[in-house]
Design brief:
Helices cover about 15% and strands about 35% of the residues. The protein has helices spanning about 40-50, 80-90, 170-175; strands spanning about 15, 20-25, 60-65, 70-80, 95-105, 110-120, 125-130, 140-150, 155-160, 200-210, 215-220. The longest helix is centred in the first third of the chain and has 12 residues, at about 40-50. The mean pLDDT is about 95.
């Protein structure tokens, strides 16, 4: 059995026990398989477990939440069905505290605040639109944000989503603040990044362990790419 082409402990593997596998996902990798047929994070995680524990058959990997393909950062995977069902419940009930870092092209008028929109996703175009007032097809979506400061020619903003909607942070920063995420041409940024990622990173997850109930906090190192270099000063 060949060793998987990812991961190193402390860089990609942030934590592992009998129930959890916490990964720092690189940008460009799907979390779960889709119509493209590209190998997703879940399959790579299963390969890693099969190799590490010399399993002759399939290893259990459960996906409780997702990051968009061009987004990097911390993803919590379940190694047991018990952990998966409880993680699913915690994410659904907003009992997981999520922190994201994003680079934007200019400072918004207010350097911190709360955004509320009603989001409507177009599944055909895979794009989400944000409405500032109640929309009959919309899902209420909320986040808190704080601009941490200037990072080179960009601005670094910390985002704490209260809800977890598809493309929520991308849509709300673009619509609510008028500041699309660097590289996110789908939501209004003028040019893509060289690696076709977007400058959005799932920096931290905090939750109670689904089995032991211990308080857990996981931080994902920033990607080792040029557009995140200046943000390293805020670590």
């Amino acid at each position: 059995m060949n060793r998987p082409n990812i991961w190193a402990e402390g860089r990609e593997i942030l934590f592992e026990d009998n129930h959890l596998l916490i990964i720092n996902k690189p940008a460009g990798l799907l979390v779960q398989g889709d119509a493209t047929g590209d190998e997703p994070l879940s399959a790579k995680a299963e390969e890693y477990l099969r190799f590490k524990y010399k399993k002759p058959g399939a290893a259990f990997i459960g996906v409780a939440h997702r990051l968009d393909r061009p987004v990097s950062g911390v993803v919590a995977l379940a190694k047991t069905s018990k952990a998966l069902s409880r993680l699913n419940e915690m994410f659904r009930d907003n009992k997981v505290h999520k922190t994201y870092w994003a680079l934007i092209g200019k400072a918004p008028e207010s350097l911190e605040g709360h955004l509320t929109h009603w989001l409507v996703k177009d599944p055909i175009r895979n794009v989400t639109k944000a409405y500032p007032k109640l929309h009959p097809q919309g899902q209420k979506s909320e986040l808190d944000y704080q601009v941490l400061g200037q990072a080179g020619s960009r601005w670094l903003v910390q985002v704490n989503p209260i809800t977890g909607r598809p493309h929520q942070i991308r849509t709300q920063l673009s619509t609510g603040l008028g500041t699309p995420i660097v590289g996110d041409v789908k939501y209004g940024f003028l040019a893509p990044l060289p690696d076709v990622s977007i400058a959005l990173h799932a920096r931290q997850l905090e939750f109670s362990h689904p089995v032991t109930k211990e308080a857990m906090c996981f931080q994902a190192p920033l990607p080792d790419v040029a557009h995140w270099e200046a943000a390293q000063a805020y670590l």
